[in-house]
Amino acid sequence: MKKIGIIGAMQIEIDLLLDKMEVVDELMYAGFPFYVGTLYGKEIVLTRCGVGKVNSASCTQILIDKFNVEYIINTGIAGSLKDNIGICDVVLSSDVTHHDVRKDQMRNLFPFQETFIASEELIKLAVKACASKDINCHIGRIISGECFVENHELRSSLIKNYSPACVEMESSSIGHVAFINNIPFLIIRSISDNADEEAINTYSNFEKIAGEQSASIVSEIVRSI
Ligand code: ADE
After folding, report:
1. Stretch 6-31: mean pLDDT, rounded?
2. Is the sign of the CA dihedral 79, 174, 16, 34 positive or negative?
3. Which atom of ligand 1 is nearest the CA belonging to 149?
4. Could you tell me the distance, in angstroms and rounded to a whole number, from the CA of residue 192 to the centre of ligand 1?
């Protein structure tokens, strides 16, 4: 049985899993809490990385180095960048990339990847988990950058440049760090807003329900393996 590392940025994104898991140890590294234990009898390490790509990169590397996780799943919320992806729909990452790093830099400098490809095996498990819960899920590109997207100019240029399904602020660096360590990963994001001028309001209405929904999919994946 493989050990699974689960990362959420915010407390509301991990609470449901923390409630369900049996915690046998709790450790702090670099200010991140790591909850070690089991969920449905499977070994997991759950952590909260905080918002942003630097936090999520650092936390992912610690998860790999200190806890030897063999899979990484990131759970959380995101802003939709597609008309057919609505609030509380779920996006499963086909791949992830940084929207605030130039594409030629991504291609030409280490680790020489324009995007980081998610695990097919984990995508299949997540699709099944969503189906079992009657959740509308989409597989697509997830992009991340160091800003909350809440205006039409940025939204439109991200859509034009990346053809993404949704945007948030952590997963590209989780995928990046997983890739350079050769660890399979999956990002699961439930939609909290449409990354437009209404985003702050929509986000505050839906962050909890979307955060819990995403965590419930992770729980179902762990149960099913
Ligand atoms: N996470 C959730 N909604 C977001 C948005 N609109 N921009 C960036 N990160 C988000």
Report:
1. 98
2. negative
3. 7
4. 8
